[in-house]
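Follow-up to my earlier ticket, as requested here are the two runs.
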Amino acid sequence: MIELPEIPDSIKRIRIDIGLSFDAPHAKDWISEGDDIFVFGFEPVPENCKYILDEIKSDRFHLYECAVSDTNENRKFNVTKHNTSIEKDRGHSSFYEPSDSSPFSIDYSLDVRCITLSSFLDLIDWDRFEYIDYVKIDAQGHDFKIIKIARPYFDRLPRIKLESTTQAAYKNSPDSDKFEIANFMSENGYTRLYRNGASVPEGAETVDHFYERRILPAGLR
């Protein structure tokens, strides 16, 4: 089981970044957003972890070199490469194999440690932190499995971002129905919004789904 690092007394807000890729754009933005924000990152690709730790030097950031899944057990993880370029981005790495039409292919596979989001949330000092400010998940076809397990904590997760349109990129991905994800989140107290907070127009589609609790904690209203 993983352990929490010491969180500075100045921290008032926690954010979770699941699947940082090699350049961790969300984590970087969040750390620069305010001195009272602490970011927990989860990334299973060794090359990505090395690059991230070289880039982010902060006592308000902690990186776990592991994957988030729906079970607490080791499992096979496919690290991908781009078929036609030498770009560093291994952000399409996944538990699932790339589809035949994908520009990415498997470079190598490894056995990775996995933790469920709910198991991690069990470790949070809820007497100190009322809620997790923001959870971002970019798990390449595994997002829905990750968030479903965390349902007991939904009252403490006011804002969640998921990737929802990966079914064409991977074989046997369980996230094959983006409407199932949206319905599940709605049934569990969330409204789907654009990033600027506006409602999503009927029929509109985006790669990412941003969800906000219909009843927000007092500090976020």
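Run two:
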Amino acid sequence: MHRKRTLLFGTAVAVAAGVAAGCGGGTNGSQSEAASTSGNPQSSSPAKTITVKETEFKLTPSTVSVAKTGTYAIKVVNTGSITHALEVEGNGVEEKSGDVGAGSSTTFTVALKSSGKYEMYCPIDGHRKQGMEGTITVGSAAGGGMRTGTSTTQTNTGGGGYGGY
């Protein structure tokens, strides 16, 4: 009888370990699902990386153009001496970087789902009015402007996405 219980217990532990291993894969699947619902169903990786430098009180570049819709990584580099942030807004999109301290950088993703113009600006009190604003143009209207490099790295946004527009 004792031997049957030991065998049953061992089997239960093996099944639980298998289920736990399966759940671990589910976490990555959830991250991919979240990324794919933010505008790029083919891949959870951003199509390109756009780098924006912030200082007192301007964005460089202040205008960015991309040829097509998709999920983009926005790398925010604070080259100034005070805290800044970056927000991208328009066409049903509103994504923020969070605060970026002086000399620091962060990367967040944004799904630019529609052709047209999106605003980008520093949402910290008064910074936008002092000149920390610009635009991202997506699609045929993008024509010239800044060209962005390709990126094959996946960015962990830590949530913060807005799904279901």
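The only thing I checked on run two: The chain has two domains: 1-36, 48-149. Let me know what else you need.
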